[in-house]
Amino acid sequence: xxxxxxxxxxxxxxxxxxxxxxxxxxxxxxxxxxxxxxxxxxxxxxxxxxxxxxxxxxxxxxxxxxxxxxxxxxxxxxxxxxxxxxxxxxxxxxxxxxxxxxxxxxxxxxxxxxxxxxxxxxxxxxxxxxxxxxxxxxxxxxxxxxxxxxxxxxxxxxxxxxxxxxxxxxxxxxxxxxxxxxxxxxxxxxxxxxxxxxxxxxxxxxxxx
Length: 209
Prior knowledge:
By secondary structure, the chain is α+β, with helices and mostly antiparallel strands.
């Protein structure tokens, strides 16, 4: 896949995920402009605006770190920044984040792999569940992103991207994070695997060789 096509897929994914909260903001402002003097209407619309604005900001922060060039960050990123980014991304969802990574910092490319696999895993928890992040620092550092829930489903295009480095079609933007994670892993010489240890559990492992 050409870099320009990957960039287009990532832009499509970003826009798709922002349409809902931004649309809600627009609708809320329109309602206020029409019925701005109605106290009951204001009481209903303002919480909607607050929620939508929070979702938009949280998703933009995630995309900046997961997809962006990261010019504002050094070679390593504070692990608390990565944890906070995921906490905010899944805020208000049915996904419970269990952060079990005690690293002080994370190498920037590894952080991007982690974040992109986390959104794939989180979206795979169709009925909600637990998303666990853990790792080991040694001669060969490793990260594990595990999704556990009543129903866990990773789309075929995302599986193919992670397992074989197969590029998704230009119509399948949902698989863009999976392909980006695999591309970065290949570039830094990391091994990327997907395992299914039991029903209702899927884990991605990243080993830096």
